[in-house]
Amino acid sequence: MKTFYGVGVAALVTVMSVICQEAAAQNPQVGQAQQSNAQSQPANKPLPGITAEQAAEIKASLATLSPEDRELAEAQGFCPIMLKNRLGVMGPPIKVMIKDQPVFVCCKGCVRKAQSNPDRTLQIVSQLQIHGALAKLSPKDRQLAVAQGYCPVMRDNPLGVMGTPVKVMLGNEPVFLCCAGCKRRALANPNQTVAIVADLRTKVADEAARRARVEARPTQR
Q1: In a 3-state reduction of DSSP, which class is residue 173?
Q2: 103 - beta bridge partners?
Q3: If we measure between CA atoms, which residue out of 100, 16, 97 comes closest to residue 24?
Q4: Going by C-beta distance under 8 Å and a sequence separation of 6 or more, which residues neighbour residue 26?
Q5: pLDDT tens digit string along 129-186?
Q6: What pLDDT shows up at residue 33?
Q7: Cβ–Cβ contacts within 10 Å for residue 50, how many?
Q8: Host H or E run for residue 97
Q9: Sites in the chain below the pLDDT cut of 50
Q10: How many C-beta atoms surround the C-beta of residue 111 within 10 A?
Q11: Which of 116, 145, 200, 221 has its CA 20 to 30 A from that of 134?
Q12: For residue 164, what pLDDT is reported?
């Protein structure tokens, strides 16, 4: 399978693993279902992993950006260098243009590192955007989208790379698309679409199993 903006199956599985780990830490009963990100949380509730005061600081910091930049920063969610830092927790995020793409970092200290390895930075940002888009789905739908991984119409597109995935029902089978523009083609041949989704689920599961085997190997000295 090809990659989209440097995000292949392996990178996508990494994102899904992070989402699932966050969900399990927040609510073990949810299992692999991911929890909502900063943008999907009610304003009066603290974000996962931070205090209510920090959530208020983040909101105030993002409010200083232009509407367009604020939307981009909210979609990214976290700094690509200091991955545990939510954008806005250290003041207004700093915008950096990398290969003509806007990237936000948490502070001035991260600018040079983001620019020093542009391909890696853009790949991480793509993963963060996927994370945020999938987090806007319901827990059950997030789990299904994680298992599917990619759009069955635009098969190079990881679900979430173009915003919140679009859900369609083909018979009793829930199918997720990268965008509304794929809906007509998915519905035109439902049996083929469902077959493609089954294949995508197998590819993502196989890659996850492969990564698990690699990580389980003892480190050679």
Answers
A1: strand
A2: 96
A3: 16
A4: 35, 48
A5: 898 899 889 999 999 999 999 999 999 999 998 999 999 999 999 999 999 999 999 9
A6: 32
A7: 14
A8: strand 94-98
A9: 1-16, 19-46
A10: 15
A11: 116
A12: 93
Its pTM stands at 0.65
Q: Cα(61)–Cα(70) distance, rounded to whole angstroms?
A: 9
Beta bridge partners of residue 89, listed in sequence order: 91
Give CA torsion, residues 52, 57, 60, 66, to 10 deg: -120
d(CA 189, CA 205): 25
Sign of CA dihedral 11, 144, 48, 179: positive
Helix (H, G, I), strand (E, B) or coil at 188: helix
Q: What is the pLDDT of residue 53?
A: 87
Instruction: Tell me, rounded to whole angstroms, the distance of Cα 195 from its chain centroid.
Output: 25
- If you search the block for the tokens 């029902």, which residue do you land on? 169
CA dist 103 and 80 (Å) reads 8
Q: For 109, list phi and psi in degrees, rounded to 5.
A: -65, -20
Residue 156, C-beta contacts closer than 8 angstroms, at least 6 positions apart: 1, 2, 3, 4, 150
Q: How far apart are CA 24 and CA 27, in angstroms?
A: 5
What amino acid occupies position 211?
R
152: left (phi over 0), alpha (psi -120 to 50) or beta: alpha
179 class by beta-carbon count within 10 Å (0-12 exposed, 13-18 middle, 19+ buried): middle
Encoded tokens for 62:
């993002």
